[in-house]
Design goal:
The protein is mostly helical. The chain folds into two domains: about 5-180 and about 300-325, HUPs (Rossmann fold), CATH 3.40.50; about 205-295, Tyrosyl-Transfer RNA Synthetase. Helices cover about 55% and strands about 5% of the residues. It has 13 helices and five strands. Helix 1 (about 20-30) links the parallel strand 1 and strand 2. It starts with 5 loop residues before the first strand and ends in a 6-residue tail after the last helix. The model has no long low-confidence stretch (mean pLDDT about 95). It binds adenosine-5'-triphosphate and L-tryptophanamide. The site of L-tryptophanamide (LTN) has 13 residues, from strand 1 and helix 7.
């Protein structure tokens, strides 16, 4: 039997996860997990590229892992861990920092967006963030990375770094990873501004449905979702608010946006909002409740993280040793 290909992905524990994180990432991890050898982790070292409250960060890291399981990730068959528990990530990131260029990093839209919010003092980690992400991926010879659309540029730079180093040190050094983008739901928009991405670090809590929201909060947020002028329900870029609600429905139900739009012929925006709210509440409710349940048993989560990190370290050390060798560093014991 040929071994399964490797699939890997991660979320920053920078806040509670959102519906965007679920539809753009987690839901697809769950759907694909049985076909791959999977590693999923919480990127706590990425989260500290912007200031975090230490207590909150620790809490959100546990919560992220619990949410993966609550969403349907099978903790017994995948490797689950916290990024900072596997020191090889930071070590390989240093090496990759020596092979990625200032020009490449300064073109990253995530860097441009996030640094614009930092004022004068922009942490260097925010700039070199993609090198750490490339390390996350390349350490495990990953084939497939399921993410939302905002991560496309980071995947491309990862591929470029891998190809660049393979050319110098041998084509079998790194596997060049592929991105997996879901057909719908790859970019869920803010409920308050449908031209910008729903994001867990948006300061306006009305802009996102969190996977911790009660059914009532979900209904209220969707009722207040900013929609467009006019009254016809159409799936078009000219109506980004309406399009977003249809996309949310499509990503949850698996129906196409066109099919969904047809069912609203002659109906009003209110109908679409109410139905979307019910679908979201039904999808989020069980994840929310199961997450809370899992969070009550810290020793279970600690055990899981410990075992996961142990498995990940062994795999990561193999690749890192190979990289160090080829670069001419003396092998460590
Ligand atoms: P932050 O606001 O802290 O940057 P975020 O909400 O953008 O957080 P990330 O941790 O950057 O979330 O992303 C985790 C995963 O969720 C990534 O695969 C990302 O592409 C995906 N994702 C994030 N936001 C959305 C969204 N609005 N729609 C679809 N996918 C998303
Ligand atoms: N940059 C990603 C999080 C991330 C990631 C990864 C995703 C860090 N390392 C490796 C996939 C694979 C983000 O969503 N902001």
């Amino acid at each position: 039997m040929t071994p399964k290909k490797v699939m890997l992905s991660a979320v920053q524990p920078s806040n509670r996860l959102t519906l965007g994180n679920y539809l753009g990432a987690l839901k697809n991890w769950v759907q694909l997990q049985s076909q791959f050898d999977c590693l999923f982790f919480a990127v706590d070292l990425h989260a500290i590229t912007v200031r975090q409250d230490p207590k909150e960060l620790r809490e959100q890291t546990y919560r992220a892992i619990a949410t993966y399981i609550a969403a349907g990730i099978d903790p017994d068959s995948v490797t689950l861990f916290a990024q900072s528990h596997v020191p090889q990530h930071a070590e390989l990131a240093w090496v990759l920092n020596c092979f990625v260029y200032m020009g490449e990093l300064s073109r990253m839209t995530q860097f441009k967006d996030k640094s614009a919010k930092q004022g004068q003092n922009i942490p260097v980690g925010l700039f070199t963030y993609p090198a750490l992400m490339a390390a996350d991926i390349l350490l495990y010879k990953t084939h497939l990375v399921p993410v939302g659309e905002d991560q496309k540029q980071h995947l491309e730079i990862t591929r470029d770094i891998a190809q660049r180093m393979n050319q110098i040190y041998g084509n079998d050094l790194f596997t060049v990873p592929e991105i997996y983008l879901p057909p719908v739901g790859a970019r869920i928009m803010s409920l308050q501004n449908p031209l910008s991405k729903m994001s867990k670090s948006d300061p306006d809590p009305q802009s996102a449905v969190y996977l911790t929201d009660t059914d009532d909060q979900i209904r209220k947020k969707l009722k207040r979702a900013v929609t467009d002028s006019g009254s016809e329900i159409a799936y078009t870029a000219e109506k980004p608010g309406i399009k977003n609600l249809i996309d949310i429905q499509a990503a949850i139900t698996g129906q196409s946006p066109e099919q969904i739009t047809q069912t609203y012929a002659g109906k009003q925006y209110g109908h679409l909002k109410v139905d979307t709210a019910e679908l979201v509440a039904t999808a989020v409710g069980p994840i929310r409740d199961r997450t809370e349940q899992l969070l009550r048993d810290r020793s279970y989560l600690d055990d899981l993280l410990k075992q996961g990190a142990k498995k990940a370290r062994t795999r990561a050390e193999k690749t890192l040793g190979d990289v160090f060798d080829r670069l001419g560093l003396i092998r460590r014991g």
